[in-house]
Design a protein that fits this description.
Pfam families: Glyco_trans_1_4
Structural class: alpha/beta
Number of domains: 2
Oligomer: single chain
GO molecular function: transferase activity
Mean pLDDT: 89
Keywords: Transferase
Strand content: 15-25%
CATH class of the largest domain: Alpha Beta
Helix content: 25-40%
Radius of gyration: 21 Å
Strand order of the largest sheet: 3-2-1-4-5-6-7
Number of strands: 13
Low-confidence stretches: 383-388
Protein name: Mannosyl transferase
Largest sheet: 7 strands, parallel
CATH topology of the largest domain: Rossmann fold
Number of helices: 13
Order of helices and strands: EHEEHHHEHEHHEHEEHEEHEHEEHH
Shape: globular
CATH architecture of the largest domain: 3-Layer(aba) Sandwich
Length: 388
């Protein structure tokens, strides 16, 4: 069985976002199930595919809006308006349909597509209708776009997010309808996409590959957060944390925040430090007494939550941070009340209690593999006995 995994960004061996970490976990699970997987998509500029023998690179692109010039942003908006595509998909129209078709031909004979998220599939949708497909919905993108529209203050941004939401809803519905099977990363996303039936979809429990290190940790701060804060759903959670939670923390509570930061993000709290990019994300969070899990928007699953649980680190989480995860370790406190969140952070930092995250990791792998096998059976390119 040979599957073509169509995605916006191909793996380069150094995943820097939750999306890339999720992709690596899904591709590895497909291969554990016995599938041959060829990945097709773009690469970040200056990077190389981690598995060039099984990767077809369409070119190098940087699709991050925060890295684009004002002229590039205007060009993307204009192209989106003229083409009727979403802003996210039009960024990937750096090559033509004929270029993509030629690349698909180079991939060799294959049995079906895995359409990984809506951005790439939406950019070249008509090219993936000749074979059975599985659609992987990392998020319910149209709902995230609506939340983004409600959160921004600029009129132009709000209008663009509303347009994005309207278009995404149509594209997501069409991709789900055409797919033989749909994978989501959270249970509630199945109903939101209209594929709640077990014959139509399954949830993929994910892993990050994080492994707890034995022995005591060297604590350098009370709390640590890391993420791509330029991504709007993450930015909404960060704003909630800085505006609502941090003012309740005592002045000497030390918070380090790492990752790509949009302009204008500040905090008057003396203990808050913005540290930018860090060389080792796991070492960074392991140096904190407690990890705040602060998601308040978006859909899908929070990879930072999974990583924290795999590492066995103490955490305080919003209920939204646990979406798609049934398990909650003993050292995780859940609250959506800002003052209660602050009190829980201070209590966890004063009494550090790590736990063994290996059992959680093993259960995630077992459930992930079972869901992948189900999806491959439903797509119709393999028989159930192939997995016996």
């Amino acid at each position: 069985m040979h599957l073509l995994f169509a995605t916006s960004i191909v793996p380069d061996g150094a995943p820097a976002s939750g999306y890339e970490i999720a992709n690596a976990a899904i591709i590895a699970a497909l291969r554990r199930a016995g599938a041959r997987v060829t990945v097709i998509g773009f690469i970040w500029p200056g990077r190389a595919a981690a598995d060039p023998q099984n990767t077809v690179v369409l070119g190098a692109v940087d699709v991050r809006t925060e890295n684009a010039s004002a002229l590039q942003k205007l060009a993307w908006v204009g192209k989106a308006m003229l083409s009727g595509l979403t802003f996210a998909s039009v960024k990937l129209r750096a090559v033509s349909d004929s270029d993509v078709l030629a690349a698909i031909e180079r991939a060799g004979p294959f049995d079906g597509y895995v359409l990984n998220s809506v951005q790439f599939a939406g950019a070249f949708e008509k090219l993936f209708e000749d074979r059975p497909s599985i659609f992987v919905a990392h998020n319910v993108e149209h709902l995230s776009a609506r939340e983004n529209a409600a959160a921004v203050t600029g009129i132009l941004q709000r209008l663009l997010f509303r347009r994005e939401a309207s278009l995404l809803e149509v594209v997501e519905e069409r991709l789900c309808r055409q797919a033989r099977f749909v994978f989501t990363l959270a249970e509630e996303d199945r109903a939101a996409l209209g594929v709640a039936s077990d014959d139509r979809s399954a949830v993929l429990p994910l892993v990050t590959g994080a492994k707890a290190r034995k022995g005591p940790r060297r604590i350098e701060c009370d709390a640590a957060l890391i993420g791509t804060w330029t991504w709007q759903p993450n930015r909404i959670g960060l704003d909630w944390f800085l505006d609502k939670v941090v003012p309740h923390l005592r002045p000497d509570f030390r918070i380090r925040i790492a990752g790509s930061m949009p302009s204008g993000v500040t905090s008057a709290h003396p203990g808050v430090e913005f540290v930018g990019r860090v060389p080792d994300a796991q070492a960074f969070v392991r140096a904190a007494a407690v990890v705040p899990l602060i998601s308040t928007a978006g859909s899908g699953v929070q990879l930072k939550t999974i990583e924290t649980f795999e590492l066995g680190l103490p955490s305080v989480a919003t209920s939204r941070s646990l979406r798609g995860i049934d398990y909650r370790p003993a050292n995780c406190v859940v609250t959506d009340d800002p003052a209660g969140f602050a009190r829980a952070l201070e209590a966890a930092a004063a009494d550090i209690r790590d736990v063994d995250g290996s059992a959680f990791h093993r259960e995630q792998i077992r459930a992930l593999d079972a869901a992948i096998r189900l999806g491959l059976e439903k797509i119709g390119v393999v028989r159930q006995e192939a997995f016996a």
